[in-house]
Amino acid sequence: MSLTETAATSPAATADVPHLGHWIDGALRPSTSGRTAPVYNPATGAVQAEVALADRAEIDEAIASAQRGYEVWSRYSIAKRQSVLFAFRELLNARKGELAAIITAEHGKVRSDAMGEILRGQEVVELATGFPHLIKGAFSENASSGIDVYSLKQPLGVVGVISPFNFPAMVPMWFFPIAIAAGNAVVLKPSEKDPSAALWLAELWKEAGLPDGVFTVLQGDKLAVDGLLTSPVVQSISFVGSTPIAQYIYETAAKHGKRVQALGGAKNHMLVLPDADLDLVADSAVNAGYGAAGERCMAISVVLAVEPVADELVAKIAERIAKLKIGNGAGTDGVEPDMGPLITDVHRDKVASYVDIAEADGASVVVDGRGFSVDGHEDGFFFGPTLLDHVPTSSRAYTEEIFGPVLSVVRVASYDEGLELINSGRFGNGTAIFTNDGGAARRFQNEVEVGMVGINVPIPVPVAYHSFGGWKQSLFGDSKAYGVHGFDFFTREKAVTSRWLDPATHGGINLGFPQN
Length: 516
Ligand code: NAD
Fold this sequence. Notes:
- Its EC number is 1.2.1.27.
- Keywords: NAD, Oxidoreductase.
- This protein has helices spanning about 55-75, 80-105, 110-130, 130-135, 170-180, 195-210, 220-230, 245-255, 280-290, 310-320, 345-360, 395-400, 415-425, 440-445, 485-490, and strands at about 20, 20-25, 25-30, 35-40, 45-50, 140-145, 145-155, 160, 185-190, 215, 235-240, 260-265, 270, 300-305, 365, 385-390, 405-410, 425-430, 430-435, 450-455, 470, 475, 490-500.
- The chain is an alpha/beta fold and about 525 residues long.
- Nicotinamide-adenine-dinucleotide binds near residues 166 and 266.
């Protein structure tokens, strides 16, 4: 969220809630650092655990264990590695309900949404099971007389993954299945706000037969992150989180000689052309704007309505908001709400402050989620779905990422004006166009400066065999997550030029540069 908001050490660590430690050497490792952070149940506001914040000794221990794991795992045959991946996939598929419950309890998102996040992560596990095909090199026979040239794709070694709070299972799964399949050992530093999913996944790897040390969970804050960024043992960093931290990660990791991919924040626009089906648009805007309480990097946060449709569209969105059920994501009396709470009270107040800013800047608050509370959950971190209209593009509520259930409508006169607004933004994660005009959609996919584009699809998260990543300040580095980019990121290529000497053709002494 910000450089100052995270990395806090809880002043109120309590002895009567579970203490969540690390996963090192294939086992839970309680922390002795004496530093912890609270883990809330956002639906009730109660502290349900204290998570360890690693100290220097624990960081070193985790990295050293991963190095030992790498030395064992990288020598496993492809067939043996593949059998562990298949076992992991089967266990995950069979037991994903347990993981969904953990995600809901710590993140707050509704159970079906937690399940959706797991399924999108499982897709990458499934892709990774086919890794032999994706990491096999190329071979050129007789590149020069009697000389063959071929390439090997070898693992990097120990790789670091640092993940955000909003997808505690899916985002780590964007990286670790591919990294492990390729023969690396992973040290995962999950968000301190919802650290239990990572520990659950670690136990699953153990059950699947992964050797100790190949998957490590290092709980912590900036100290743990900096430990990974500066360690000479760690070969690469895969980061997902807010833009200021992504930029810091990119610069620091690169300075320490590492391969780095750092995915940052977003401000995703949906461009609605006048010929679009407004009921489809309103459904999509509500789903993509308020799903997971807007805490998705691919959430739609701005609707650019090309006039004359704005009045009708705003009315349709407001109508749908009125029917949304907001409550404990775990459900009450067997009924699941549409939307759960935000991650913390601090974040809820920050979201509210953006609505204040928009209002002060002249936006109209069509539906106001400030001060929202849920009966029986008065201490939960709830914020109601909010709809803003006539949002000035100079307002910070427009230019900054809010990361909450706040949808802003900006009225534009033409496709060109809408496109110009999207392209002038500093983020470039996702976008969508809604239209029935194929020519306009085709123009948009070509002209828009954004990494992931939806055509009548509001959250265009690519499937596992394509790759995920934005442009501009939404991605630092040149490698996206998963897909072919993932296999390239987690392997390094070695080119071998080979000749089996034949005294008749070896050519004798020749100091010139090798030619064909
Ligand atoms: P965050 O940047 O606060 O934290 C991400 C990770 O960085 C966490 O593990 C955290 O412990 C660590 N961290 C935080 N402050 C740090 C510091 N000063 N130094 C070193 N490490 C630090 O992000 P968040 O609030 O957990 O997640 C929400 C953000 O992530 C949003 O901006 C969202 O758009 C973004 N996000 C982006 C994508 C994407 O694919 N582009 C996906 C999911 C989330």
